[in-house]
Amino acid sequence: MSVSRRGFLAGLAIAPVAVGCARRAVATGPRALPIPPLAESVVGADGVRRFQLTMQVGNTEILAGKRTPTWGIDGPYLGPTLRARRGETVAVRVRNELPEPSTLHWHGMRVPARMDGGPHQTIAVGGEWTPTWTVAQQAATLWYHPHPHGGTEKHVYRGLAGFFLLDDDVADTLALPNDYGVDDIPLVIQDRRFRADGGLDESDPTDVGLLGDTIVTNGIAGAYFRARTSRIRLRLLNGSSGRLYHLGFADNREFQLIGGDGGLLPRPVALIRIQLSPGERAEIVVPIQPDDRVMLRALPIEQRGELDADRAREFGFDDTFDILELRGAKEPRSSAVVPDALVPMTPVPAAAALARRHFDLQWFQINRQRMDMNRIDFTVTPDSVEVWTVRNADDWPHNFHIHDVQFQVTEIDGAAPPSELAGWKDTVYTRPGSSYTLAMRFGAHTDPTYPYMFHCHLLLHEDHGMMGQFLALAPGQTPAPMSMSHG
Ligand code: C2O
Ligand code: CU
Ligand code: CU
């Protein structure tokens, strides 16, 4: 793998300015997109792949020539990309060198509840936590981020997030761009607001959270990526607090959607736009011409439902942003055509559902309740199928994320979903006024004490209590009393 651990953002961290030095030279023009380094890991004699991560504070040159105090993992902003294969057992030692307690959650991963890194797995200041689990799901673009009770938005906003890529034998046989950092590019899209002194502005959240006026891709504003091949794969992640992105290219070129939250789709879907709400991922393959220059843009959000025009403006739905400029090589290396068939998908047998549940999303609440660390909302049976209907009963945008499972969206307001929602999902946008039916099969893990979360992934909403908890219990198992200290 060609990307060194030291390379990422290290060059962007600003050295103290020497006394007498009037001002730093201000960098101008776009800068090359930083690629998060691959996290180093060691496979022991026991076969376990061990990673080590440190959550820490630092300074980052997000804006050219400006110093921004930030938080990061093994660096000043964002974190390295973890990578593991299906079937492997991984262990991640996470050290917290932040000034506040935090957690680290493996978003999209099937994990035992006590390894999930949700609000019950607090890592104290100066403390360590070493979750371990066996990867039991298909190749996918997952991510990790903090999940402290009531504090997720700020911890993510300050810079804590990273990719966790899963590989498997099936994905390996497909002719898809897979040279990390060369034609297979992780791209986390975030919006941030800066104070005059360069610090991140955490004031005045809207009702969907902190919205920025500056787009930050992989940790910098104003990035370009120079492609060397005739097709590139972008692993897109909406890592923002509350902003939705409706993405497309300035010249309306077609791209192939090849994957969603939980892995590759059954077949590629040709699109010119793709929408991502906070937490969602999409993998796309984009054709690049010789000497190309094309801008990936965020365009106004079209899926508004019952959102009124003033609120739409306030929530950033009318905004347009440049995200990333793609530049082509003079003589690009030719890439394989995207295969017509990717990864077969068996429908979840919804008719066999053991439980059907309904969730109403409205005003920081799910089913008229706000999150309580000591309340278990329901229990699920391992390996069982369930069908959940999630209704956005609000005139605000929300989305819905479930820990531990990947689900299929089977209906939207009683109709079949569009083809871009054909794959496995762990997070789905819920348009104001609409209902989404989700079919899922739970995993084998059980735990009488530690729950999994389900919540709106607009981080302010999550922090304000738009979240609930469920336990996975074996038949006959009873919940253990949970008295949570989460400090
Ligand atoms: Cu990405 Cu419960 O979170
Ligand atoms: Cu999650
Ligand atoms: Cu919400």
Give your account of this protein's structure:
With 487 residues, the protein is mostly beta strands. It has 3 domains: 33-172, Immunoglobulin-like (Sandwich); 184-333, Cupredoxins -  blue copper proteins (Immunoglobulin-like, Sandwich), CATH 2.60.40.420; 350-472, Sandwich (Immunoglobulin-like). Helices cover 4% and strands 37% of the residues. The chain has helices at residues 152-157, 169-172, 309-314, 459-463; strands spanning 31-32, 42-43, 49-60, 68-73, 82-85, 89-96, 105-107, 128-129, 132-134, 140-145, 162-167, 184-192, 214-217, 220-221, 223-226, 231-238, 245-249, 255-260, 263-271, 274-276, 281-287, 293-299, 321-327, 355-362, 365-366, 378-380, 385-392, 398-402, 407-412, 427-430, 435-441, 452-455, 467-472. The strands form 6 sheets. It has a 7-stranded mixed sheet, with no helix packed on it. Strands 1-15-23-22-17-20 form a 6-stranded mixed sheet, with no helix packed on it. Strands 2, 3, 4, 6, 8 and 9 form a 6-stranded mixed sheet that branches. The two termini are 40 Å apart. One copper (II) ion (CU) is lined by residues 105, 107, 401, 403.
